[in-house]
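Justification of resources, computational component.

The compute hours requested in this renewal are based largely on the per-chain cost of generating structure records like the one below. Each record pairs the submitted sequence with a full structure-token output. That output is archived, and it is also reused by downstream analysis tasks.
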Amino acid sequence: MSTSPSRVFAARLAGLPVFDPQGDQVGKVRDLVVALRTGVQQPRVLGLVVEVFGRRKIFVPMTRVTSVDSGQIITTGLVNMRRFEQRSRETLLFGQLLDRNVRLKESDVQGTVYDVAMEQARNRDWVLSRVALQEGSKRFGRKGQTHVVAWRDVDGLALPEEGQGAAHLLAALEEMRPADFANVIHDLPAKRRGEIAAALDNERLADVLEELPEEDQVEILGNLDSERAADILEEMSPDDAADLIAELPPETAKHLLELMEPDDAEDVRRLLSYDEHTAGGMMTTEPVILPPDATVAEALAHVRDVELTPSLAALVYVCRAPLEPPTGRLLGVAHIQRLLREPPSTLVGGVVDTSMEPLHPGANLEDVASHLATYNLVAAPVVDEDGRLLGAVAVDDLLDHMLPENWRDRTIRSRVKRG
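The structure output for this chain reads:
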């Protein structure tokens, strides 16, 4: 460990790549596992929670770590690939220590933990040595004073926490993609998940909810007040919101739909009217829809929207008015590759593909899969008997329904304990 600095602030390690001695990346740091001790003893850092390929989390003991710095972590290469499972006497540093309310013993100053420093003891163990905390601000818009003090000078670190916030945990994880963020909070205690959900803004929480297993979605939504729950559902894509509402008790679902904006609620109700495992049940009602007199430049501006998934950005659906589903008659689709080859002033009506047969809402999973495979598509239009566009089925929606039930929760169902 001679190449490691003598003290490392843990929050800086979030998301760092982990390499083997040959320079191949093993995964990324998602948390640190520590053993809190009684009295004023410095907690020992047991190891790292590392996310490897397939979003699997493994435990890497600190005895297998040869270098720690602010840019990367290097291991011996002898890493056990069995799944991580937190034990009862272990604490997750990011998930459970950040944002804890504590008190300085001598001055009685109170604040929240925003970082923790670790360093190597004489016996080569890594221990938590310093605590960075921030006082509550007495003035609106101003941050409170910060302190970096020895672990032994702080009360409240080893006690069960009530009403723990989440601001500093979110700061440490803010660059994560929603799927990775969901993977982190999925493994936390239910109470901690609720605290994190309360601190997230509506848009971010909606993105994360879409990536969580159904049980977590229902639990988190159930702990929100009805008004905010309805706002979250409005931020979700209609197909994901419909899937979630379908898991709620009927009275709760009805109440939330009544609280949602009428247009958003109507989209969800329409999706709920179809069987879950059909094109109608899988489709999204928010593909890119344009009239035939729109230009290629306009079409490209729409598909550049960062909120679109790659599969939905691959096609523009050209329809007669009205342009909100159910639209006027679907004229065809414009492929992104064709749009990129055309002059910006070209009308999309002149570059539509009219040869592709659309799907009907009653098409089953096998029909949808065959259709996408036959035409080498990542998305396809769904129309009613009058040829009006109802929505689009994307390949990610298809996979979501073809994979085993609760596939997002596979890390729990197949966990193996560390030896």
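Confidence is low (pLDDT under 50) at residues 411-419. DSSP finds 16 helices and 18 strands in the chain.
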